[in-house]
Amino acid sequence: MLAVSDDVPLLDDLMPWSVAALRLGRDWVVAPDERTLRTRWDALIRAEGAERERLFEPSRARTLRSPAAALPGRAARTGPLAQERGACPPPVRVQCGPFDEQWLIPDQRLLDAARPELWRVADGHQLFAVEPGDMPAAAPRARTKGEGPAQAGPALTVSALLPDGRSPAGRPGRIRPLFRRPGALEPNLAPGLLPFLSGTYGCAVAPADVLAWAVASARPSAAGCVVPLPDDPRLWADGVALGHRMCALMTRGAHGGEKHRLPGGRRPYVRAPIGAGPGELHYDAGEETLRVGEEGRISPVPAEAWEFRVGGVRVLDLWFQRRTGAAGAGTLAALGPRDWPQERTSDLLELITVLALLGELRPRQAELADSLGRPLTREQLRAAGVLPVPDAARRPASVLDHHEEGPGGQFALI
Length: 414
Description:
With 414 residues, the protein is an alpha+beta fold. It has 2 domains: 256 residues, no CATH class; 80 residues, no CATH class. It is 28% helix and 12% strand. The protein contains 12 helices and 15 strands. The strands form 5 sheets. It has a 4-stranded antiparallel β-sheet with strand order 1-7-5-6. A 4-stranded antiparallel β-sheet has the order 10-13-12-11, with no helix packed on it. Helix 6 crosses helix 7. The radius of gyration is 22 Å and the shape is globular.
């Protein structure tokens, strides 16, 4: 097993431009479904004066009178929310923490820190690597015969949706787009890295290959994700293939890929309908059954899916809590469906499938880690001119080809 050392490259060395996590400022701006967000917006707009102020939940960064530009690519209004009378801006699908796809009202007047630089490069070609904060120090390992599923989660996750960068462990992480410009232009990689890797491994190396290798091999450390680069071309090829499989699962068939399913006989089904307001989630390991509240039953649910964790937090538990946790009475966050919508069950079945298939890949990740031996070093990257990374590569690229609307309809100054 590879020991982490100061001379092993970090993800920060390979993908130098990173953005802090979004800071929403108020929970009610995200929800599992669009209808709930429109209901909350309508309730805010119907309220007047102090009642609208209370429902909005002002912060130091945002009040009903705070000026804010439109988010890049969004036709949201920019006047003060205190005077707003219009319809809800069309919600967009985002990733709220690892593996949790929800909806967001894309209006910068509602968000404390929306990170416009991410919105400028989010398109149908982009992938976002999310490096969680407060990562556990222990590396993921495969389970051996007689052990339960591995408890450590992935050190790096990938999303095709714009992620909020939240970490289940507490401290927000860093978001690293694969490309610095829309249209899959200008990879967010250290200058010279692709030619260096292509020469080292004797094959063409694409930006997505670097991300795939990082997903398969990344290890947590106090300094961030460690990404050991092998000196063996065959090991590189094996790791890249594994990483592409993991990325396809994490992004759930985005960018024209296929949705993934477990084989027949292992595919989870709803054995008993989920009732309104399910209070708790339980797992019966012997029957491989997930009990959703008093009535709902889903099986078979592999143990790999139930035990799948990120930052030490069980993903299925967190997903369920975000949909059933009690919100403060009289708040916008408390507005939502009283029943358990059918689409929520569909989302749960898909999540179980993704986690089960990712869990099955953990032994291959462990084999990859055991085979690494002595990886390429930072010193070798420095000798090849890849490191140190120029300061410009750590800043956003200029991507504007049109004016963006600033507060009150004025052009934004970038």
